[in-house]
Amino acid sequence: MVKMTIDGDEVEIDASATVLDAAEKLGIEIPTLCYYAGVFREATCRMCAVELVAKGRPGKIVSSCAYPVSEGLVVETDNKNVRTNRRLSLELIFSSHRIKCQSCPRKGGSCELLELGRQYGVEGVPVCSECPLHEDDCLLAKGEPCLGPLTIAGCGGVCMDMLRVCEGCRGPVTRSDAVREALHLYDIYGIDTEEVRRKLSKYYANSEFYDRLLKTVEEVMTWK
Amino acid sequence: MEVKIAPVSRVVGHITLNVKIEEDEIKAKLKVLNDPRFIEALVVGRRYDEVPEIVSRICGPCSVNHTLASIVALENALGVKPSEDVELLRELLCQAVNIQNQAVHLYFLALPDLVGCENIVDLVRQYPAAVKTGLELKTSGNRLIEAIAGRIVHPTACVVGGFTETPSQGRIDHAIRMLEESRKYAVEAADLFLGFEVPELDSVSDLHLVTCGQSKYPFVGSSLSASDGTVFASSDYAKSIEEEPQTYTTAKYCLLNGSSFYVGSRARLNVYAKGLADSAAEYVSKLRLPLRNPFENIPAKAIETLHCVERCIGILNAIKDRKLKTKSDVRVSAGEGVGTLEAPRGVLIHDSNVDENGIVRRYNVITPTALNGKHIEASLEELAKERIDQGKSDEELKLGLGSLVRAYDPCLGCATHMVEIAIERL
């Protein structure tokens, strides 16, 4: 048996256990995606990241599902460092995950990935990722005000299949950089941001995202 | 005595039915329970190109009809003339929606009444083959809509001026093959639903209203014709059709020149029976036209489904090897316009007023169920009177009233409008 500290609470646990086991014993929740008790413990998703606290220097981030406990270990499971790390991991997962929510058997609220995305403010990839899969031409490049770069993917790109611009019905991508990337695209293709703003107001008016978006537009405009 | 059915099951949306039976008078009230949705107010202040997409949300099952009616209304307001091909494709879409909607109503809402099943779960257990036929028919309608309009619900390709994309040759060929296969299901449906004895009931008023158009059995057209011989342009609808807010429900019910009337499959068949496709026309001989019994709406729907399958194959074959012109230029100008077409449940009217910047200033929608409302209530009163005279029990009366409402196939989501209610205090 070894003694260790998680988020300020001391716990005594078998020496062969992992930090995740110890946290579970204390009732502290750590999000996991790839970990499955007794089946899979390869620490590939890195959602269970925690910080090993060391005096006087930045702590080390480790995957709690695979990191063994040791005597006197001090761990923090929920601080700024950990959250940033988890958000980064989620963005990496989303960037290569083909979000086909409509045909996914986990739709209807049982998807941990979307749930975590919501918690950490990382929601999917934009609709722009749908078009190449369907070999649809980019409507932005034709100068049409498409909301694709700002809208969350998963619809299957049905509008662009019929050569119609994305109207944003599925909700906004909340990835931190999405709005900036989108505005950059609108700038390149010379699309009237006023027209984009009008289109966005259809589904998002009075939402928090809409206010934030307008602020970002102002910021980007003042840089020029 | 008061008979209450709350809610009426197996209808699209939520309604309750109150029938008050007194010595000398029977009063039926159909109460729509859906909350007001303010769709007509939502589109005011929005530009014309956004409106079809918003009003499409009025109804899931016939979102295509709402989209198209809205587009026609706006095109009339802006003075846009769509090409002949566009009109043909719109006709095709309306018929595809008709196949899909009628299949759902026939097999899942009406059939349990006819075979005496209590609910759909019962029906699936006892008549699995029929349920499968119904689903196959619905699927073929769905796939056809998807091929032409891009999406089954809330179509993406339909815009003011035409279609964003012309259906490809491959897609048309595929749709033809699929419909050829589902023809046998439509024949099965016609055989099944014309074989039932429907309950006896004479129509309270035989006034009915249909859309007049170019084709022999039109679904899209620019004027309306009533069975009393009056024909009027769609834009003059307000002179003849009076929308009446009701104190007891959020839906507005309508009167035609002061009397109740009906729309839908039964009305269409009464007027256009001669325009039916050959295979569907054979079945008409089994009915006595004009159909005066509201319950005969059910066999009428089955005949229409077969007709629509045939007509869709016909239209698809006609456009197969042709280059289609599906886009017209849209120039914004101020104006007023009305769009009318036949939704599965009957005449649908969209009325728009657009200013010189293309911003919608006024919008009005009249749905088939709002048109039918008064006639349903009158028929219910008639049915209650007849059944009481025959000395039927309360249970039988309730069952009869419920199945009569379902025979009209009301769709309540779309019938809901805001109504101002004035409170009177003495």
Explain what the structure shows.
The complex is a heterodimer of chains A (about 220) and B (about 425). Chain A is about 35% helix and about 10% strand. Chain A has 8 helices and 5 strands. In chain A, strand 1 and strand 2 form a beta hairpin. In chain A, helix 7 packs antiparallel against helix 8. The longest helix of chain A is centred in the middle third of the chain and has 17 residues. The model of chain A has no long low-confidence stretch (mean pLDDT about 85). With about 425 residues, chain B is an alpha+beta fold. Chain B has one domain: Orthogonal Bundle (Cytochrome-c3 Hydrogenase, chain B), CATH 1.10.645. Chain B is about 45% helix and about 15% strand. Chain B is built from 14 helices and 14 strands. In chain B, a hairpin with a 4-residue loop joins strand 2 and strand 3. Chain B starts with a strand and ends in an 11-residue tail after the last helix. The C terminus of chain B is likely disordered. At the A-B interface, helix 5 and helix 7 of A face loops of B.
What is the string of SSEs of chain A from the N terminus onward?
Answer: EEHEEEHHHHHHH
Q: In angstroms, what is the radius of gyration of chain B?
A: 21 Å
Category by helix and strand content of chain B: alpha+beta
Number of strands of chain B: 14
Strand order of the largest sheet of chain B: 7-12-13-14
Please count the helical segments of chain B.
14
**Total helical elements of chain A:** 8
Short description:
Chain A is of the alpha+beta class and 224 residues long. Chain A is built from 8 helices and 5 strands, in the order E-E-H-E-E-E-H-H-H-H-H-H-H. Helices cover 36% and strands 9% of the residues of chain A.
